[in-house]
Amino acid sequence: MQSHAATIQAILARELDEHLRQTQLVRASLLLPPRSSGIAATGAQAQASR
Protein backbone atom coordinates (compact mmCIF):
# COMPACT_ATOMS: atom_id res chain seq x y z
CA MET A 1 0.00 0.00 0.00
CA GLN A 2 2.85 2.42 0.80
CA SER A 3 4.44 1.66 -2.56
CA HIS A 4 1.17 2.58 -4.27
CA ALA A 5 1.01 5.86 -2.36
CA ALA A 6 4.62 6.67 -3.24
CA THR A 7 3.89 6.01 -6.92
CA ILE A 8 0.87 8.32 -6.83
CA GLN A 9 2.91 11.03 -5.09
CA ALA A 10 5.65 10.75 -7.73
CA ILE A 11 3.10 11.04 -10.53
CA LEU A 12 1.48 14.08 -8.91
CA ALA A 13 4.87 15.73 -8.41
CA ARG A 14 5.70 15.24 -12.11
CA GLU A 15 2.31 16.61 -13.13
CA LEU A 16 2.79 19.66 -10.90
CA ASP A 17 6.25 20.29 -12.35
CA GLU A 18 4.87 20.06 -15.88
CA HIS A 19 2.02 22.42 -15.01
CA LEU A 20 4.43 24.98 -13.54
CA ARG A 21 6.64 24.79 -16.64
CA GLN A 22 3.66 25.30 -18.93
CA THR A 23 2.46 28.23 -16.80
CA GLN A 24 5.89 29.86 -17.05
CA LEU A 25 5.90 29.40 -20.83
CA VAL A 26 2.48 30.99 -21.18
CA ARG A 27 3.42 33.91 -18.95
CA ALA A 28 6.65 34.44 -20.86
CA SER A 29 4.84 34.37 -24.19
CA LEU A 30 2.32 36.93 -22.94
CA LEU A 31 5.07 39.27 -21.77
CA LEU A 32 7.10 39.13 -25.00
CA PRO A 33 6.24 41.59 -27.76
CA PRO A 34 4.87 40.07 -30.98
CA ARG A 35 7.53 38.95 -33.44
CA SER A 36 5.78 40.36 -36.48
CA SER A 37 6.41 43.99 -37.28
CA GLY A 38 4.48 46.68 -39.06
CA ILE A 39 0.87 47.73 -38.98
CA ALA A 40 -0.52 44.39 -37.80
CA ALA A 41 1.71 44.37 -34.72
CA THR A 42 0.89 47.99 -33.92
CA GLY A 43 -2.83 47.27 -34.21
CA ALA A 44 -2.56 44.25 -31.95
CA GLN A 45 -0.69 46.28 -29.35
CA ALA A 46 -3.30 49.05 -29.49
CA GLN A 47 -6.11 46.56 -28.98
CA ALA A 48 -4.27 44.92 -26.08
CA SER A 49 -3.84 48.26 -24.30
CA ARG A 50 -7.56 49.09 -24.42
Question: How does this structure look, described?
Answer:
With 50 residues, the chain is mostly helical. It is 82% helix and 0% strand. It contains 2 helices and no strands.
Lay out the secondary structure.
Elements: H1 2-31, H2 39-49
Shape: rod-shaped
Number of strands: 0
Biggest sheet architecture? none
**Fraction in helix:** over 70%
Mean pLDDT across the residues is 81
Beta percentage is under 5%
* Structural class by sheet pairing and helices: mainly alpha
Computed over alpha carbons, the radius of gyration is: 20 Å
Please tally the helical runs, counting DSSP H or I stretches of 4 or more residues: 2
Please give a quick description of this structure.
With 50 residues, the chain is mainly α.
List keywords for this structure.
50 residues; mainly alpha; 82% helix; rod-shaped
